[in-house]
Amino acid sequence: MTEDKKIEIVENTICQDKISELPQDLLVMILSLVPIKDAVTTMFLSKRWLSVWTMIPTLEYKDNDEMKKSVWNLLDKSMQLHKAPVIDCLRVKLGQLCPTDVDVVKWCSNAVSRCLRDLEFVLSWSADPTTLPSSLYFCESLVKLTLCHKILVDALLDLNCVVYKDEYSQVRLLSSCPVLKCLYVRRNKTDNMKKFTIKVPSLLELDYAGYDVGHALVINTPRLEVCSIYGFVGDSISIENMPFLKWAYIKLGSCTNEKLLSCVSSVSTLQFFLSDEMDWGPATLSCLSSQLEIFIWKEYGGTEEEEEQFLRYVLASTKCLSTATINLQYTLKKNHEEEHLMMEKLKHIPRASTTSQLLFKYVSFIDVPLNVFMPPYAS
């Protein structure tokens, strides 16, 4: 073989387009991993690539502070050409650069018609809040919905400080999502809702934060497994129908403990933050005596009689308890001897569960994090 022939073979091998020979599904998967702007530009490579990007199921359009113009034009033009029959995820974040005279939700309606599963819509433009298409309220394929800032929810699922037309529209919002599994709610003092109702039969995970004492919360979620509630909902809280709850994180400004804890009787792991305004009577955990397996007390001071009484009741009443973690609260005035005496005192508190263990977490007087594991109580 001549030298020129060898060079020709090498050049042909180098120039051969191996990527374009890949199956269509694999090319779509590859383009799903790059920014939408870059994916769209591949249409200019060749006829083979002209429509590949139009089938990607995940779309993300987000303004940021470094941009000189909004992604709105890209969103508007690319969605006109997009052809995927199913959209797994659509994430849109439009900021101050977005024109205020455009229809920013028309492509939301388009995505809903193509079995949309996950929608994140953040609208921070300078115009007034805008409404969503009514088709979104009845989307049976929707699994997760995140709405932020200037979106007016008038009939409807991270719900982040959104504005509702009235209480009925908020209830209709959730009832119109029949396959919703995860719900994240963030409310602030400007929230126009006095009562927030969560009645979702399909819901598995709930994360709720309210910051106004005047807010009321009603929860009816029969399949819920994970629940986080924190804020200032006071005594205006009604929780029922949670037979499958396994993990709960509760941090409230004030609340009647019996009223709240009676609703989480099936929980196996509980993180419960007590405040000075709460009733610390022994009855507060009576509903958990046959279910609780893991108990965590953060910032245990040990200086109040009520604290010790409450802890004694927990350990003496929870028959299935496997681990109780006590995070000791220290000040610089406490010395090592006092720390040791406190742990020794707590270690000998009688426990209903003969296999339970106490785990103390604290910072010593020299600021060295330590973990001290106590063996099961021997009756």
TrEMBL record:
CDD domains for this protein: F-box_AtFBL13-like (cd22160)
FBD domain span: 286-361
UniProt cross-references to Gene3D superfamilies, sorted A to Z: 1.20.1280.50
Signal peptide: none
InterPro entries assigned to the protein according to its UniProt record, in alphabetical order: F-box-like_dom_sf, F-box_AtFBL13-like, F-box_dom, FBD, FBL13/AtMIF1-like, LRR_FXL15/At3g58940/PEG3-like
Name this polypeptide is given: FBD domain-containing protein
